[in-house]
Amino acid sequence: MKQGKQYYIKQVANVTGLSAQLIRKWEERYQLIQPLRMPNGYRIYNEEHVNTLLTIKALQKKGFSIKEALSLAADNTKEYEDDSDAEELAYSPIEKEPQLNNFVISLLERGIACNELELAIILKQAYHFYGLSAFLTEVVSPFLQEVGNKWEAGEWDEYQESVSSLVVRDMLVQIRRNFQYTENAPLVVGACLPMEQHEIPVHYLLLQFLLKGWKSFQIGASPAPGSIEALVTRLQPKIVLLSASTTIPFEHDPELLDKLDRFAESLPAISFYMGGEGALAYTKNNMPNRIKIANSIADIVL
Ligand code: B12
After folding, report:
1. Does residue 147 have its Cβ closer than 6 Å to ligand 1?
2. Fold assignment, 9-90
3. Do residues 107 and 122 touch, judged by C-beta distance below 8 A?
4. What are the residues facing 271 on neighbouring strands?
5. 133 Cα: distance to centroid of ligand 1 (angstroms)
6. Do 261 and 290 touch, CB atoms closer than 8 A?
7. Closest Cα to atom 87 of ligand 1
8. CATH number listed for the domain at residues 182-299
């Protein structure tokens, strides 16, 4: 069992969105989770327990019965303990549920309470602990994914979602501003499409570019129509990243993709990429000619 931070049942209930009563019931009935006991009888949980409960919850949401979920969650935990068994994984009936580390669990606790100051402190600690690359993949991404799950399940209100994500956004902006680069580094410009508020993916991608020796410019969330074209013409970057987490930009302006594609065609020296869940969904039936559709930085030719 992994050592590390310990949690009381109330904290586990808060983070997982399961009631303390249900967590105790599962322990008594199915013995999957066996928390330690303090001398006064209080249950003490660790990171692995929290993850197992989240996995069971996610599996139930996918339609598995509690018994199936328990047995798959036990396999999921085993697979994480022994990641070498790649062949067994390939035949696993479920995708591995992401495992949250203690930083992410602590962030969720502070997000529930909308505690901006502590959210910022934990993010900084995690950044120093992991370094930028792993901070993005191990903390920022799983935290926001879980925030989204909680918002979608109605466990978190919009205020909790927006406070938590704003603190993350501010941290990413701060890191980007302080990042040293050489003046002759190639330039990448990142932009949300007009009407798109989800700007964190753009900060995230630009930070990944900085790590690869690029310099970056970000056009803010929901830019005014025409401003992407104006700034790209002025800055003449090597690469332009366009992001749409939702399909709102395309619904709002059905001509948008065509206009941007024509603009991209007029600048053959610049590579244009478009990504994000909304862009992927929309371009399934509306493939642009010049703009390439991409899912991550790995899809981009640097
Ligand atoms: C934070 C957040 C917000 C914040 C945004 C803050 C900000 N300044 O960015 C706020 C509160 C403003 C917000 C608002 C809304 N949100 Co919101 N939000 C999220 C949340 C929790 C996290 C998004 C995020 O930053 N993830 C972290 C990044 C790093 O990961 P990523 O988004 O997956 O991006 C990666 C890839 O997609 C890819 N990528 C993205 N773009 C590009 C571009 C290129 C070129 C490439 C190569 C790759 C690439 O690379 C990124 C890095 O790996 C998600 C939950 C989720 N599951 O994603 C919902 C989510 C995106 N939101 C959603 C919704 C519905 C909304 C609202 C409509 C309603 C609401 N919640 O109030 C509004 C929309 C407003 C608008 N007009 O855009 C839905 C979208 C569903 C859909 N596809 O339509 C989600 C998925 C929540 C859900 N589970 O339902 N949201």
Report:
1. yes
2. Multidrug-efflux Transporter Regulator; Chain: A; Domain 2 (1.10.1660)
3. yes
4. 239
5. 20
6. yes
7. 148
8. 3.40.50.280
Q: Give residue 300 CA to ligand 1 midpoint distance, Å.
A: 20
Strand partners, 216: 188
The DSSP 8-state label assigned to residue 241 in this structure reads E
**3 state DSSP class of 142:** helix
What residue owns the CA closest to ligand 1's atom 6? 198
Q: Which CATH architecture has domain 102-177?
A: Orthogonal Bundle (1.10)
> How far apart are alpha carbons 18 and 32 in whole angstroms?
15
Domain ranges of the chain: 9-90, 102-177, 182-299
| Residue-by-residue pLDDT tens, the chain, 302 positions | 345 789 999 999 999 999 999 999 999 998 878 899 999 999 999 999 999 999 999 899 889 998 889 888 877 766 555 544 444 443 345 566 678 999 999 999 999 999 999 999 999 999 999 999 999 999 999 999 999 999 999 999 999 999 999 999 999 999 999 998 888 999 999 999 999 999 999 999 999 999 999 999 999 899 999 999 999 999 999 999 999 999 999 999 999 999 999 999 999 999 999 999 999 999 999 999 999 999 999 999 77
